[in-house]
Amino acid sequence: MSVMRSRQSSPFHPTEKLGDALAALARVRELYGNSTEYLCSAFLRFAAGEDLDARVRACYPFVQIQTHRATRADSRLSYGFVAGPGRYATTLTRPDLFGDYYVEQFRLLQLNHAIDFEIGVSKVPIPIHFAFPDDIHTAGDLDPQRLQRLGEYFDLPDLAMMDDSIVNGTHEPKVRDPTPLALFTAPRVDYSLHRLKHYTGALPEHFQNFVLFTNYQFYVDEFVKLGRELMSHTADAEERDYRSQYIAFVEPGDVTTWNANLGNRAPEGAALLPQPQMPAYHLRRADHSGITMVNIGIGPSNAKTITDHIAVLRPHAWVMLGHCAGLRNTQRLGDYVLAHGYVRDDHVLDADVPLWVPIPALAEVQLALEEAVAQVTQLKGYELKSIMRTGTVATVDNRNWELRVHREAVQRFSQSRAIALDMESATVAANGFRFRVPYGTLLCVSDKPLHGEIKLPGMANRFYRERVDQHLKIGILALELLRKNGAQRLHSRKLRSFAEVAFQ
Hints:
Layout: E1 7-9, E2 16-18, H1 21-47, E3 55-57, E4 59-67, E5 86-91, H2 95-113, E6 117-125, H3 138-141, H4 144-148, H5 150-153, H6 165-168, E7 179-180, H7 186-200, E8 210-214, H8 217-231, H9 237-243, E9 248-251, E10 255-258, E11 280-284, E12 291-295, H10 300-310, E13 317-326, E14 336-345, H11 363-377, E15 388-396, H12 407-415, E16 418-422, H13 425-435, E17 439-447, H14 457-485, H15 487-490
Parallel strand pairs: 1-3, 5-7, 8-12, 8-13, 13-17, 14-15, 15-16
Antiparallel strand pairs: 2-6, 4-5, 4-6, 9-10, 9-11, 11-12, 13-16, 14-17
Helix pairs in contact: 1-2, 7-10, 8-14, 10-13, 11-14
C-alpha cells in the first residue's frame, strides 16, 4: 500500500539575472548539479536499505527571458530569436552534454534581443531515473519489494510531461505561462536520452551532428570496416590529414577505437551481446560534427522511433541511405534515386504531421547528395542521369504489398509519379520536417517487382557486394560537404513555423 509522505526538496536557490551566456551556462550547471547530486545521494541511501523520512524532490533548472520589442540583428538565420514581445522560458537538462549548444542559443538571443537571462529552479521535478545520466539500473539493483516502494520516495517519469505538442505546433500556453523557448522540455529530452542507450547501445555523447540511417546490415558492415581503417596509422601525409579529422570510432557497447594518427591510446569498452535493436556507430570529431550511422532495420515504426529520440540531440542533418524497389522499367538494378518528394503510405506520423502537410525537398541537402554522386562515380551533367534519377519515393508499411491485388496501388504510384518504393524514407523525411532537422534520401534500386526482377539470394548478394561500398562513400561524402558548407546555411527557414521557438 502506498503511504502518503511529507516532501523534502533540495535546498532553495534564488533566481538570478545574468547578462552573459557563459555565466548563464555556469549557473545552469550549478543548479542541475545540485539537484541531481541531492537525488542521487538520497537514492543510494534508499538502495542501501534506509527508509527515508520524507519524499525526496529536486527540480530542473530553467532559463527565462523577457522581450519588450521585436528586434533582430540578423534576418538570415532561421533560429536564435523570438517571435515578438513577451516572456519565454524552457527547462534545461544535461548541461554536460548540451553545454556548447546552450551557449550558442543564449549568445544568439543576446545578439538579437539584447536581453538578460533569468536562471532559476523550475517546478518540474527530475524523475529519479533521469538523475543518473548513465542509468541507475533500478530494476536490477533493487529487490521487488524495494522497487515497488520507489514511487513513495521519488518522482518517477511522467508521460504527461513528455508530449510533443510544442514540436507539433499544437501547444497552447496557459494564461500567464511563458511561451516555450525550445522544442523539447527537459523531461522529454531525458526520456529520449535514456531510450537512445536502450535502442542503439551507445551513450548520447557519442552521437554526432550528421546522421546516416540505413535499412540493411551490409551498409553497417562497410561503415565498420571504413571506421576501423580510418583509425589505423598511415604514412601518407594527405591521407593522414583526412583521417585525423576523426578522433575515434565507437561501436555499440561504447567500444572505442582511438585514431592511431593522433596518439597511442588503448581501445575501450566491451562489445554488446546480444546486439541492440538499432545499433549505432560513430565516426567522432572533437566538435561532434562527425558522422553517426544507425541500422534502423525495416519498417516505418523503427524509423519513427529512432528519429523521435535522436531529434533531441539537435543534429544538423540526417540522410536515409538504403535500398528500394524501382518502379520504372527504365531503371536498372544499382541505379540511384534522389528523393524530391514522398508518397506517405507509412501511416505512423499521420497524427503528428497530417497528410495535407507537404514535405519539401531541401536544396542544400539535395545539392550535396547530387555532388557526392558525381564525385564518387566521376559522372557529371547529362551523364549522371544514366545512373541516378530524381523523383518521388513512395513509403509503405506493408513489406509484402505485392501479394495483394495491387492494381489500385500501382495506379496511385503512377499518378504520384513515384519512381521508387521503400518502407522508411518518407518517415525519416517527415520526422525531419516535424523536428526541424534537415533531411534527405538517396536510395539504390535493389529489385524491380513490377517488372519481374525480385530479390533472390544469389542475385541480392552480388548486387550488395557491387553497390554498397560506393553508395556508402557517397553518403559520407555528402555529409562532409554539408559540414563544410556550414550549419547556418543548412538550417532552412522552410522548416520553421509562424511563431517558432528560438532554440535551433
